[in-house]
Design brief:
Blueprint lengths: L1 H19 L7 E2 H4 E3 L5 E10 L12 H13 L16 E9 L8 E8 L10 E8 L5 E8 L7 E3 L2 E3 L6 E10 L12 E6 L4 H15 L4 E3 L4 E5 L4 H12 L2 E2 L7 E4 L6 E3 L8 E5 L2 E12 L10 E11 L5 E5 L4 H10 L4 H14 L5 E4 L1
Helix pairs in contact: 1-6
């Protein structure tokens, strides 16, 4: 019952938000619409050991790689184990270390890292990560990680019962890695930089070109396709940084995006990015029926007024749940109104999902329908 009420609340919020969405686009900063080609993060990964655990480490009988790693580490440090020695390591856990190397990071800078258990350790709380090299996709070492793990929200005990708030097999180390190698950047090469739109859109690309040329002069920018825009930039590094700063601060009004409706079949939530109108259709789902009829409305000018006859489409929505219970929506048959009307007569989120899918299949819903 709680899930159903929660789903209906989400539907009501969706209907309210839909009424506030308009087709007017507002100006946004260029840095929110596009990124500079070559200015990006790089993912780093490494394999290491966490020691100092209070008996919550890997069970060595089920994680032989932990024993092999410890034996290899000891051998590198000059400790040779007698043949046939069986290690019982309850305070050690094998982990994977991940981090993101930001653009223009230089040797000596520090990075935050995430440490995740890859064996069957019960908890990493109180552990210390030993020196771990972090490699990029090219298998080159770009940073070294080491430090004490922090596992937040471990839990509390009340009345003899334990409440676990966080996942104990994952921890973080703030500034736990030091950059050892910088990633070469092509940004300072040549007199051309390229902007990459976050979403491919020819209209938005043309608007960006127009805004850049208006601010910096003609022929400064040119669109290569619906996503990449080539911009002429100064050769001097200091002037180029100032130029790119001003470029990212330009206000551009993006083109209106395509209508899209996102359905979450697990939670029953429905989200759309703009108001969506519906064509004529009739849907029957259980004891629910939805009928959308679009009729022409003719507006004829007065005699001798030299006006033109206008034919507009006027939509009528009729929704029934039981005999005698009808909701009529005059003109403007939008998806928001259909959702609101369905919610008013007690339709469940699953009913809504099924009806929207049927409308899309029938060609009445003029929007991209994505189910997650």
């Amino acid at each position: 019952m709680r899930l159903e009420k929660s789903g209906r609340t989400l539907v009501m919020l969706f209907a309210l938000l839909a009424t506030l969405i308009s087709g007017v686009s507002h100006a946004e900063r260029l840095k929110d619409l596009a990124s500079i080609q070559g200015v990006r993060q790089n993912q780093l990964i490494g394999y290491g050991l966490v020691v100092g655990l209070d008996g919550s480490g890997d069970q060595t009988t089920q994680t032989p790689f932990t024993v092999q790693s410890v034996a290899s580490m000891l051998q590198q440090m000059g400790v040779n184990l007698p043949p046939g020695t069986t290690l019982q390591l309850k305070n050690v856990a094998a982990v994977m270390v991940t981090a993101s190397l930001p653009a223009f990071a230089q040797p000596g800078q520090t990075l935050d890292i995430t440490v995740s258990s890859m064996g069957n350790a019960k908890s990493l709380r109180g552990g210390t990560l030993l020196m771990t090299p972090l490699k990029g996709a090219d298998n080159q070492i770009y940073a070294m990680a080491q430090g004490n793990l922090l596992v937040g929200g471990v839990g509390a005990s009340a009345g003899g019962s334990k409440v676990q708030v966080n996942h104990l097999s994952v921890g973080r180390i703030s500034a736990g890695a030091t950059v050892e190698r910088a990633v070469p950047s092509s940004l300072s090469q040549g007199n051309v930089v390229r902007l990459e739109l976050n979403d491919t859109d020819f209209s938005t690309a043309s608007r960006v070109v127009a805004a850049v040329n208006k601010h910096f002069g003609n022929n400064t920018a040119a669109a290569l396709d619906g996503r990449v825009i080539q911009v002429q930039a100064p050769l001097n590094s200091d002037e180029r940084v100032a130029f790119l700063g001003a470029l990212e601060s330009l206000n551009v009004t993006p083109a209106q995006t395509a209508a899209k409706v996102i359905l979450n079949a697990r939670t029953g939530s429905v989200v759309m990015n703009q108001a969506v109108t519906l064509d004529s259709c009739a849907v029957s789902h259980g004891n629910l029926s939805v009928m959308i009829d679009t009729q022409p409305v003719i507006s004829q000018p007065a005699p001798f007024s030299q006006g033109q006859t206008v034919v507009a489409q006027r939509s009528q929505v009729e929704i029934k749940k039981e005999p005698g219970q009808v909701l009529m929506l005059q003109s403007g048959a939008s998806l928001a109104e259909v959702v609101r009307a369905l919610n008013a007569i007690g339709a469940t989120p699953q009913d809504l999902l099924a009806i929207l899918q049927a409308m899309k299949a029938a060609g009445s819903l003029r929007a991209e329908l994505e189910i997650i």
